[in-house]
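Technical annex B. To support the medicinal chemistry partners, we prepared a structural model of the target in complex with ISJ, based solely on the information shown next.
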Amino acid sequence: MANTKQAVPDTLPLLRDRIDSIDSQIQALINERAQCAQKVAEVKLAEQGGDAVVFYRPEREAQVLRRVMERNEGPLGNEEMAKIFRQIMSSCLALEKPMRIAFLGPEGTFTQQAALKHFGKSIVSAPMAAIDEVFREVESGAANYGVVPVENSTEGVVNHTLDSFRDSRLKICGEVEVRIHHHLLISPHSNADEVTHIYSHQQSLAQCRAWLDRYWPHAERVAVSSNAEAARLAAEAGKNGRAVAAIAGEVAGEMYGLMTVSANIEDRPDNTTRFLIVGNQEVPASGKDKTSLLISAKNEPGALYHLLEAFERHGVDMTRLETRPSLMSRWGYIFYIDFVGHYQEEGCQAAIAELRDRASEVKVLGSYPVAVL
Ligand SMILES: C=C(O[C@@H]1C=C(C(=O)O)C=C[C@H]1O)C(=O)O
């Protein structure tokens, strides 16, 4: 496009004319892109046919976003630019049929934010009451994909999510990280000085533990099913003349019309939660991938050492190790291991083959693109 490099005019009317002209070019190009995406869908339908056709391709989307960031010259920042393209792809894909995304609800949870960050806004939201319901919704085909929290940088692993993988045939298709800011919120009808109870999800109460000990040592902490539910209860209490506070994020607070008493009360300023995208699809390599495994170790001396040694010898970079009780035998364990690379890469395949010899079960939960945004 020749005229994007023209000198920038310096009067308001000329600048606005230029912006109008650029906008109409951008708009025409976005629609041209959308037509190409529609054509891609037709080709996929012709090649794969009927129910088997997979329109959404996580590896391709990750590559598109990475390239946007690599070639970006500013003044817009890389992330800002990638977010715009995230939404363009979301709109293009929804032309075919918006994807139905199940997530740990209700509306307003951080998991919903994670879903929107990962898929863009052109999706149909399907809030579920519990993590295992998210899995079931995707397994039954009622939702295309599911989004569940898996670990928090302050509080560690989300056990429900790890445990759900034991009996599920779903694959991990992606990951997304969300910076978590918590606020102390009350109804505008309540008086902050009268607050006796603070509601939130167990994880959020834990992420704000030191702050609560310091500023609200006498308020009773009540764990509820989600932060959004806590926000709803605080709004409800205000209407009934009671002063109940909630710890929740901005979105949940706005949804229930709450006021902020104290903002950003999380104990650690880098408080981040990682979420997984689960689906029925195996994702091909994107060039920058991660793999998650579930391993049942043999109950014998050195079992864990022998597993880890296989990674070391094949030069595979392990990034995470979690342990859960196996439930099959007392003091038996299941390990969840993440490593860098796609399971089809040579080194990874060799390491996995060896693990299969050394463990009683190795399940590849999925290889998926490293989060871009
Ligand atoms: C266009 C495609 O299909 C979908 C839409 C994409 C896009 O808008 O760029 C990318 C990947 C797929 O989710 C494709 O596979 O290339």
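Notes passed to the chemistry partners:
The mean pLDDT is 94.
Residues 37, 40, 55-57, 60-61, 64, 89, 92-93 surround ISJ (CB under 6 Å).
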